[in-house]
Amino acid sequence: MKKPSCNPFGALGRAALALAFAATLLPVPAFAEPDSAADPAGTGSSASVGTLQPLGRMVETERGPVFSLNDPSLLNPASGANALAALPDSYDLRTAGAGGASLSTSVKDQYPFGDCWSFGALSSLESNLLVTDHATGAPSSPDLAERHLAWFAYNGADDSADDSRWAGGDTFLNTTGRSDYDAGGARNLSAATLMRWYGAVDEQKAPYINDASMGAPDAALRNQSDVHVQNVMFLPEPNVYTWQEHEGGSPTLEHRRDPSAVDAIKTCLMENGVVDVSFYADNAITNNMTGRGTWNPATSAYFYSKTADNAEMLANHEVSIIGWDDSFPKEKFSTQPEGDGAWIVKNSWGSGTSGHQDGCFYLSYYDTSFSNPTSYQAEQATYDADGTDHAYDGIYQYDGVGVGETGFSNTQRIQFANVFEARGSETVQAVSVFLPTACSQVDITVYRNPTGLTDGGTLNPQSGTLKWHTTLTGANAGYTTIDLGSDAFPVIAGDTFSVVASAQEPNGNYLMLAEVDDASQEYAAIDCAAGQTYYTEGTSDWHDMARENLFEDGAGYTAGNALLKAYTTETPAGPDTPIAILHTNDVHCGVDQTFDEDGTATSIGYAGVSQALKDAEAAYGADNVTLVDAGDAVQGKPLGTLSQGADLVDIMNQVGYDLAIPGNHEFDYGMDQLRRLVDRSNATYLSCNFDNLETGATEFSPYTIETYGNVRVAYVGISTPESLTKSNPAHFKDASGTDVYGFCEDETGQMLYDRVQQTVDEAHANGADYVVALGHLGQSGVAARWRSDTVIANTTGIDVFIDGHSHEQYEQRVANKAGRDVLLAQTGTQLQTYGEVIIHPTTGKIETRLVKPPVAQDPDTAAFIKDIEDRLSKTLDKVVARTEVKLVAVESDTQHSWAVRMRETNLGDLAADAVRASLGADIGFMNGGGIRSDVAVGDITYGDAIAVLPFGNTLCKVEATGQTIVDALEMGARLYPEPNGGLLQTSGLTYEIRSDIPSPVKLDEKGVFVGIEGARRVQNVRVGGEPIDLGKTYTVSSITYLLQDSGDGFSMFKDAKVLVSEQGLDYEALISFIKDDLSGVIRADSIYADENGTGRILVKTGAAVEPEPIPQPQPTPNATEGGATPKPLARTGDTAAPTAAATSALALSALTCAAIATRAVRRRRRTAAETL
């Protein structure tokens, strides 16, 4: 019986084919110029800084419209890279399954239509289900509907208003005048149609009828899919045709064979099942004839050997490779190829086809028309014709026809983005991209709720919250889906999210990842609406494709939507819904979102945290989300200093914090003020180890239990024992100097471990299913016994540890005392990130991650913060001085690491000089931990000065021996090279640190200095350029925190004679020094010009060399008997400083801390019985 050709068009002559392929050498179109109507500011220009290069185009062939690359070798650069090391000599899917079961479905019959392309594609997909064991239990064999695919490829337009679900405005066009089943096609149709989830469906829903009367399937089936296609691999081409230019003559099409492509196809066949392929089927095989030199019916062997035409354009039929035989003799072909070997091919002409073997035949490895090998791969889900539990529940897309009609690349980097609006409560779980060439380097980023605008007013799809990013190399062309894994994120109806991508070819060009409508062709209808797809070329200025098309008017081309899709899963509801815990730490009044010089966000700001909380509550339900802070929120900048933390608490109430713990700096304003702040806060404060030594009770609840449905989570607060020295030690003593508060501190850490263990055990005994530790402990620069990882290692029962104190960013797994891993996370400082902990009650799985900027901002919280800042700005913005050099407190890295805690800086020198000059001493000290902010070049405001020295410490002057002074220097240098807030920045004194000598400092259980044992690492100490005399008495000025209150553990000064006490504030001294001693300007030629200072602190390895005395370039006050005459500076007259010192600042600025009238009160889920 005669079989139909795949497409009943008349055969194109070779000349016509050559002309068609030559036509793919397209003229280079121009980019669009700025449209004043679309971009009134003229800043949204898409002015070209690169050149578009033609990549390929849709061409007509005997089998239908085919997208043909100008250079087919672009499919092959890695053809052998993924091949198995040892391939068998023969392989047959029909017997490759367990027990000899077939991994290929049965032979079908396409008669009387020319839709072989749908049979080839679905044969590959059916086999993939079998190979990956995703078909409904053996021995059943999936049977998918070719009729459905062939029809809806040409009938893809959908009237649904929800374009992001079905890409409803796109479809392939049938302009042949024939039935859609006879219009022909190729992989560009089948891949694009299946990837948009138009099918595949079970054969019973759209049965194939072998009669010309077969009509359209039920229109309701268009968007149905019993199995989703998730990847389509365009495999390397064994036949590579390239155009060769000839001087003075016409270009010629030259052929070469790539043997490694054969191995790549074999490997894919073994791993993924049937490979769909095209070839030229002449009349000999269609009519089972001999004498044409191609078909040998006696051996069922076919070989086409002509090379005058491009293979994919010559090919007129698609079939299925089901195996191979390397030893199939070349003599069995009608015309002998150059070597043995053949593919085993399943045809779609019925199992009884004449000359075939059960509907199959052999196709020579050397067939020159062999082209378009393609593998269709199913989702990771078990196929069931009665209802598949799909891997992904939802699809977001605008691209329905692949590249459309034409493809380009660009010499300049070009990025594309699709912005989608969520249809409901879902989790964005995966994305996909179409790549027309192999080995392209792809960069993909996903953002939630992009809201930023470009200068031209266009949405910036790279704004909002960065949720996921990856770079990968697409080994093959085609559609690739990438799962977000643990970075999957929830969205709710009305949320938006963007998928942003660029792809660079091996030759350096960038792919145009968008559909293209070629006005000269009618193969596809492409619809692109405003607000869907955006692009940027070479700049950060984005353009809406529908408003400012990539091509200028008259170019003959129109760009459509980006070739980017997203996939979602349904967010479960009820008791199985995940529990989300958002966390921050060490905000230190960093309330605003910040940006670097390039406009890139460097911190999140409280408005970002507020929006993240709203997003999480919408996604998981408000009752399943908790926001916590791990300490050190209310101090660090003028906003905190001038309000003694009250403004910060009000902002945290606005954001919606549920729980918090006191960090060491929550104590900086004194215990009475801390109690007022805790009372003002809507959050519950916790600490299991902050004890009132007089009552024997904890000052705060040790823990609380939150209930989420039927799941109970305990939160245990843990405060750092370093608070005793890292805040003002006087705050923990009574008037007689007796300790009245403690933190379970001892020399081994055991007291702390025991208290934490006791609290965790009690929480479990009271019904906690999970225990989350909220700790302000840290790691770097912290005493080993009090580090968070040490506490975990010495306890059991904690599931997650949310940390703070050391200003580090980490996500770690630390083994507890029982060897079980505990998740440990810290977010850095000043909202460089915020953290997410997700608990999955059904599986017990716990995930942590740090979310980096940029993130979307809550406008209500941003406005709330602005109101407070505006109220303070009249005072804080007053200019008091100027600097021509940058004054450094922080290293210029991304971790906000403190330079002043590790080395000398010019700001450290300036601060020490200021306190020395203000009281007229021999020596001035400033601890690095007291200096909290850089000062940029330009005006210095009152707020800048407070930001540098935000604690409002009062100044004092004492007499101290040389021995006491060198002991203090040893104390400050004990942790080097680790950061240490006690590192002493100096004035009138220089010293060296021997990094090769371990610190000899001995501390007590509170971290307070008790003495020296061993060789000293601080050497070559000089005062005024002369070696220090250990027995001599010197005058030392600094802050009362160090010299009178033993702050940072500096107890060596406790018995020193006090000459001046409570003499003004540190930041006032800084302002006075710059104005009076430096004439109001820190000049570029001053001793503060070098950010690294003037050599007052040197680090050496090896024996110190005593240099000759060198006068130090430091300000020297006029010395008088008994020290020096201090410059007049108002005393605070208040023995409760520095708490009252901050109040003095308030009086100076005529500001008061009025209570905010409206306070956002967060709901409380806990009961009195649960708060323990």
Automatic annotation (TrEMBL):
Residue ranges annotated for the Peptidase C1A papain C-terminal domain, each copy included: 87-368
On the tree of life, the source organism's domain of life is Bacteria
Would you kindly state one Gene Ontology biological process term found in this protein's UniProt entry?
nucleotide catabolic process
CDD domains named among the record's database cross-references: MPP_UshA_N_like (cd00845), Peptidase_C1 (cd02619)
Q: Which residues form the signal peptide?
A: 1-32
GO: which molecular function terms?
Answer: cysteine-type peptidase activity
- What protein does this entry describe? Peptidase C1A papain C-terminal domain-containing protein
Organism of origin = Enteroscipio rubneri
